[in-house]
Amino acid sequence: MHRHPSRRRERIDTTRLLGWQAAAAMSVMAIGALIAGSEGALSALMGGLVGLIPSLYFAWRIGSVRGGRQAGRFVSNLYRAEAGKFGLTVALMAAVFAAVPPSNPIFFFVAYVAVLFTHWLAPWFKRDRPTPESR
């Protein structure tokens, strides 16, 4: 049975969400460059990448299987993707703090948190803005 378009579930385009995450990281990086110079910008870049790379992995892993008849496989893949994202986050944090400690940890964590909070704002991002024709 075909569903009416107004009753379809709205989904957030993962490319759009990842773009918003990258924009959040770049915004903090620009603020870090203005306030603390290149050290602040580099710290924010590393924090943004520590948040963004696991999200890219998760999106890639989840994108391979859809729901529907393969629901069990989808749920299993979802758990694996989340575990991989968590493990990748821990590994990247350890690598950053062991190999290249951020010179300005505040900008590192602000960029990381900004990338994570983008998920919380995702429902706001998916809202369609009214066009002049629809008013």
TrEMBL record:
Compartments where found? Cell membrane
Which UniProt key words apply to this protein? Cell membrane, Membrane, Transmembrane, Transmembrane helix
InterPro entries noted in UniProt:
ATP_synth_I
What's a Pfam family this protein contains? ATP-synt_I
Q: Which residues cross the membrane?
A: 17-36, 42-62, 83-100, 106-125
Lineage, top-rank taxon, reads: Bacteria
What's the protein's topology in the membrane?
A: Multi-pass membrane protein
Q: What is this protein called?
A: F0F1 ATP synthase assembly protein I
